[in-house]
């Protein structure tokens, strides 16, 4: 994976087009899921942490799947639960400076988005809009589903690990709940 997909220049893993095009340059949440394997050098982990911070994917309501506005369900501004879990777990397992803090930050962004939607609508969503916490994601060929198992599972997994921090974030003054996107999109 590292031989074919890693780029030291971008600090992330890339999809590969096998028919002569090499590494594709589009950034996506999947560009950072190899962190989940926890099998990388400290230098690669540190580069990936910084690259994710700069990517433009990290939004108020979680990590967007891509920056491509196609109207499809796997693109901007949708955020999918399995990718959130893989990123948080991967970052939490890294020894790079700032990785554990970024893992917790991403977990809390996702949990706040889930909580906001659930408190308002009484349901958990299949996917969420990373730019509008609590709002359903959209796009694709069907109406987004509610009560979705992977959303529930990821929320419970995150609560098991970050529940105390999440509870504190809900009882903190309202101004501290305000999160903003990080990164410059580059």
Automatic annotation (TrEMBL):
PROSITE patterns: TREHALASE_2 (PS00928). Its EC number is 3.2.1.28. It catalyses: alpha,alpha-trehalose + H2O = alpha-D-glucose + beta-D-glucose. One of its GO terms (molecular function) is alpha,alpha-trehalase activity. InterPro entries: 6-hairpin_glycosidase_sf (IPR008928), 6hp_glycosidase-like_sf (IPR012341), Glyco_hydro_37 (IPR001661), Glyco_hydro_37_CS (IPR018232). Keywords: Glycosidase, Hydrolase. GO terms for biological process: trehalose catabolic process. Belongs to the glycosyl hydrolase 37 family. This is Trehalase. It comes from Emiliania huxleyi (Coccolithophore).
